[in-house]
Amino acid sequence: MENNKKYYILLYYCYTPIDHPEEFREQHHYFCLDLNLRGRIIVAPEGLNGTVSGLKADCQKYMDTMKADPRFANIDFKVEEHDTHAFTKLHVRTKPEIVHSDLYHIDPNKRTGIHLAPAEFKKMKDAEDVVILDVRSNYEHAVGKFKNAITLDIENFRDFPEKVAELEQFKDKKIITYCTGGIKCEKASAYLLEKGFKNVYQLHGGIIKYGLEEGGEDFEGKCYVFDNRITVDINKVNPTVISKCFVCGTTCDRMVNCANPECNNHVPICEKCGWEMEGACSPACKAHPEKRPYDGTGYYQKNTNHYNPFKNVKREKRLVFAKN
Predict the structure, then answer these.
(1) What is the pTM of this model?
(2) Which uninterrupted H or E stretch holds 184?
(3) Which residues belong to the active site?
(4) Which domains does the chain have, with CATH numbers?
(5) Which residues in the chain come in under a pLDDT of 50?
(6) Exposure of 39 by Cβ count < 10 A (0-12 exposed, 13-18 middle, 19+ buried)?
């Protein structure tokens, strides 16, 4: 059967020192514009974190060019095919960290959990002396997680350190951390080691890579992603639905953004409740004067606000990567 998907979605990160991150951000922004990529990229002194979409040839050029730079030679791209762009805009920003953790003292290049390839994770995950730990936020693991995984009640990854005390009972176990693409696990597993946990591992490439390489066996529900798709199917072997409609409680994995823009809650809402609530997650949100029109999808395109991709870009500065 012919594959008509013309686009790639790339998910990637790399912990590597970046000198003058603001200058790099400016150059990198222009480079992505040259390739007509869209998405979100974070540049920090500690590295790069991104998810972008584009035509296959443009994404391939991006990956080849990045890997030609010694700083990013080991970057691991998770590549998914798609019908069109998964983003409307391109944002390249500088931040203190490539994922907000407040764990500035941790350098994953010096110490982190043992990386497990998806095939290794699959062989190891059901052993009696193994604990699988989800380090993602509540709204992410609510719609999908690995079977028997331990989840934490956190709204943001920066809350992870204060929850580690709840894991003391597992100190004599092998702990395997996982997240969407692997980036949170780099510091989460390092922090566990710092707190005295001895046998710490992480799923390399996260849920996405496990789905691509191993068919997603025993991942229950769907995987929350940070693009226009909201969630994606992972498990092609034994899929299940674990989430329930936020309104009526029936089994449902249909993710909706609340129609009230001041709420914008990302929750499962079944199709029936979606129409009855006009895309809102509560009666109060349904009655909100700024409620957005509901079209049955539960996805609302953000206002582009006259988006100009060349704004704040100095055109004379181009990204120069090493060719060797």
Answers:
(1) 0.89
(2) helix 183-194
(3) 179
(4) 7-94 (3.30.70.100), 114-223 (3.40.250.10), 243-299 (no CATH)
(5) 1, 304, 316-317, 319-324
(6) buried
